[in-house]
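Here is the promised in-class demo. Please do not try to memorize the tokens; focus on the logic of going from shape to residues.
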């Protein structure tokens, strides 16, 4: 079994989080969009167990995407696992895409009560952790939120290694090298990342547009069909029934990442295009329809919503949030690759990088100006401005201005893809985007 796991590529951010909760009571729940690496993470955890002395007979692994378990009901599931359980031994139970099994939570809770076991499950829809399940387990679970590859992981998956080298003057600088030891240009590597995104499967098909976008199109279709439309039917809901309207909303949100957006503005545009005309005649408010569809996209982890925070008033603003797409490659597959919106695309990358690093993230409003991100965790708060190009004086002043208005003593950082200087200005740090992403 260990030999079959040796070829797995590392995802240390998430593996370390699982290891931190190993052999603790909570059920470990790994969530995230389809094909972002959840199955591989379960296998990485199994490899870790085997390397630390756990024997294969102590591990139970089931993937509910397999036809082997397609017709299994919850009682058969419980009985199947019960037969495998080794008496008087600690067992490690791994269940992949468990949301496909009705009443799966009954079995999970029974395993916790009946056996000496450590449980790990994955799901591709936030419905897995709905309020009903949260109540059922009474808080006895911990969620590990998984995302597609970061830029640094993207380099590793595609065979590049980051090394430090000393330049004239004694300063240490990072350089990327390919599998043959040849140096690579950061700009070309980042352009590839911005073009193809971070879905791990692309490393298997290569950075070839036709192959990569075919893979991405398959992921998109699976998310829409299985995690939105099919799930809606299984739940007996009738809110999301129009695949054409769903795609229209997806395209709108993908085209407007990082822009202030409201459900009303989306519905107004779709009403003007006669996409919501029939629902208006039925007496259903357009914004209510849009809200159901957008919530489904968030539950499938395709889009993430970020709220705005009034820095002076110290309160969350209820209007005009922003949406970011979970993978920039999926956006390019939907809209076609284009770099005319480079600023918002880079914002999209930084937003998810901050989430990976464990920050809660909000948009900051101060007066009439906006700060791209306020990132907070238990230990710190950092204000971030993100820009594609900071080489002109006018752009430099525009990006500095809102940070200068913030009067507290927390870190203030500008992340710039291109900049003439990284010298701090009035305590505001200026960091090259590549340096930040490869920290």
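The designed amino acids, position by position:
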């Amino acid at each position: 079994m260990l030999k079959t796991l040796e070829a797995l590529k590392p995802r240390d951010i998430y593996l370390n989080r699982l290891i931190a909760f190993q052999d603790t009571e909570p059920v470990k729940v790994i969530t995230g969009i389809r094909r972002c690496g959840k199955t591989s993470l379960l296998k990485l955890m199994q490899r870790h167990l085997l390397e630390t002395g756990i024997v294969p007979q102590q591990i139970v692994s089931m993937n509910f995407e397999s036809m082997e378990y397609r017709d299994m009901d919850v009682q058969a599931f419980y009985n199947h696992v019960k037969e495998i359980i080794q008496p008087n031994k600690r067992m490690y139970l791994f269940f992949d895409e468990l949301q496909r099994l009705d009443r799966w939570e009954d079995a999970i809770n029974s395993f916790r009560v009946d056996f000496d076991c450590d449980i790990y499950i994955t799901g591709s829809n936030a419905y897995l952790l709905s309020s009903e399940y949260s109540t059922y387990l009474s808080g006895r679970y911990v969620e590990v939120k998984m995302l597609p590859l970061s830029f640094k992981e993207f380099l590793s998956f595609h065979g590049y290694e980051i090394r430090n080298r000393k330049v004239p003057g004694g300063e240490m600088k990072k350089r990327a090298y390919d599998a043959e030891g040849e140096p690579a240009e950061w700009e070309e590597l980042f352009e590839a990342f911005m073009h193809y995104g971070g879905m791990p499967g692309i490393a298997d098909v290569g950075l070839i547009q036709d192959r990569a976008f075919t893979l991405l199109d398959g992921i998109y279709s699976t998310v829409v069909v299985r995690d939105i439309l099919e799930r809606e039917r299984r739940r007996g809901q009738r809110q999301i029934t129009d695949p054409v309207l769903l795609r229209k909303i997806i395209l709108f949100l993908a085209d407007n990442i990082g822009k202030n957006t409201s459900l009303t503005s989306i519905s107004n545009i779709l009403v003007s295009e006669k996409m919501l005309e029939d629902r208006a005649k039925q007496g259903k408010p357009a914004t209510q329809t849009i809200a159901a569809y957008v919530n489904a996209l968030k539950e499938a982890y395709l889009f993430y919503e970020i709220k705005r925070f009034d820095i002076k008033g110290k309160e969350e603003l209820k209007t005009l949030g922003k949406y970011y797409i979970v993978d920039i490659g999926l956006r390019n597959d939907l809209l076609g690759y284009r770099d005319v919106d480079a600023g918002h695309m880079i914002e999209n990358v930084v937003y998810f990088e901050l989430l990976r690093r464990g920050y809660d993230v909000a948009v900051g409003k101060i007066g009439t100006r906006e700060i791209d991100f306020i990132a907070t965790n238990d230990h710190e708060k950092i204000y971030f401005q993100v820009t594609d190009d900071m080489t002109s004086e006018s752009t430099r002043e525009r990006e500095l201005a809102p940070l200068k208005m913030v009067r507290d003593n927390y870190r203030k950082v500008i992340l710039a893809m291109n900049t003439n200087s990284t010298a701090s200005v009035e305590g505001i740090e200026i960091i090259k985007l590549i340096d930040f992403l490869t920290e």
